[in-house]
Amino acid sequence: SYVLTQPPSVSVAPGQTARITCGGNNIGSKSVHWYQQKPGQAPVLVVYDDSDRPSGIPERFSGSNSGNTATLTISRVEAGDEADYYCQVWDSSSDHPGVFGGGTKLTVL
Amino acid sequence: EVQLVESGGGLVKPGGSLRLSCAASGFTFSSYSMNWVRQAPGKGLEWVSSISSSSSYIYYADSVKGRFTISRDNAKNSLYLQMNSLRAEDTAVYYCARDPGPTGDHCDYWGQGTLVTVSS
Q1: Burial B10-25 (b: 16+ CB within 10 A, else e)
Q2: Each residue of B62-114: pLDDT tens digit?
Q3: DSSP line for chain A
Q4: Do A84 and A104 meet the contact criterion of CB atoms below 8 Å apart?
Q5: Mutation choice for B interface testing from A96, A99, A100, A104 by most B CBs within 10 A
Q6: Cβ pairs bridging A and B (under 8 Å)
């Protein structure tokens, strides 16, 4: 089955840029989606189809996907961005197509 | 406003059964695929099951296949997850989520979740 690999943690100072990676075999051929989850809350979609943003999501959140790595980039990081972030793909060639990465804890220093 | 409200969680003994429900409102339920996603305490998200708008396409994670059954009632705007032969490792918050893909793709709206605890 398809595997997505994320770093367990990323730290960044306020105002700087955070980059969270999601690795997978030829992930560039798939659509990657990103979710933000704050403690005690349900996940929220922040980027879909590699780089599109749902309405209400700040432009500071962007995504890219190429080769074996997809990246969620958060510009001008704020304290309120501190959360867990998960990447996800739909592996349509599989009998169990929904796949999440293990998650990355973003800490704002 | 899209709303998804899960119910049916609780404490159940190993080997027992539970049926989760998800009541949808604020959108045309019959036009969307739906997903169940779970999160064990202190762990990451795990995709559990998906069902297409007309129930033609149904998928399960290997960890629940043969024990869980997803279904929907478009007339009642409701999604269900029948969970049988429950194990301690099924303990988690279970979220229902709307999926804009025709057979599954991603989760654009999530409910607040319902906690399932499997323990003797």
Answers
A1: eebeeeeebebbbbbe
A2: 999 999 999 999 999 999 999 999 999 999 999 999 999 888 899 999 999 99
A3: ----B--SEEEE-TTS-EEEEEE-TTGGGS-EEEEEE-TTS--EEEEBTTTB--TTS-TTEEEEEETTEEEEEE-S--GGG-EEEEEEEE-TTSSS-EEE---EEEEE-
A4: yes
A5: A96
A6: 67
